[in-house]
Amino acid sequence: MIKSVREKSILAGLFLSKFDKKGIESLGLQSFTEAFNILAYTIGAKPASIKNYRDEFDPYFPNNRKGWHKREFRDYCKIVYDKYSNLDFLSFQKLIKSFTIENYDIQEIIAQTDECENMNAIAKRLLTGNAAEKYFINNYNSIANFNGYKLKQTTNLGCGFDFKMSNDSDFYCVEVKGLSKSSGNILFTEKEFKMAEIYNERFCLFVVKNFVEKPFHEYIFNPLASNLIFKRIETQVTQINYTSSL
After folding, report:
1. Which residue in 185, 177, 123, 140 sits closest to 155, CA to CA?
2. pTM to 2 decimal places
3. Domain that holds residue 152
4. d(CA 196, CA 194)
5. How many CB atoms lie within 10 A of CB 153?
6. Which residues fall within 8 angstroms of residue 118, CB to CB, at 6 or more apart?
7. Is 4 helix (H, G, I), strand (E, B) or coil?
8. Residue 218 falls within a domain, yes or no?
9. What letter does residue 1 receive in the DSSP assignment?
């Protein structure tokens, strides 16, 4: 199992070097800069580190970049190169997604039954969401309202927000969204909208923007009372069930 941040960063650089634009597109991303940012925040590394690893491997694969002119590999890079450089595209793609997308194996099974969304689109949505949440974990201390509060991640609890910030007497609910560019649309589920209605000033919308260049954030307490306009969209779904007798 791949555990260290450095090994994950090296593998990300190797993947992007070997498969170039095809690798970027398989993650649903648009550019190397977006890939560096998204993968780095998801892994817990720096975007420049993944770029440097890509550049180190570039001379060994056919692409239009010069890289580092086949200088001698650093020992820890050579270990990763020798072990993984011969992986085929699909195997390497799954390896990258396995440590950048939480529960990727389950997401892949779900995607095979979803006719409305392909795996590249799912990968982009999940990667951007994961990167935004990691960004929040690294930067929430810059928000004065959260000084002295403890962080608890609630993303997988289905409670309508991603983090609970609490101290001995009070708490905030935080919903994190990520945008590739500096502007775009965000979506609230019915439960997220309900939580925002209930908790008002104790509900914070934290949006990480501009992964395609340099990420920055914006946050809004009580977003339903802000200048944001939320449009209700109703979708009718036909559910099919199957029954059998034993």
Report:
1. 177
2. 0.87
3. 143-225
4. 5
5. 14
6. 111
7. coil
8. yes
9. -
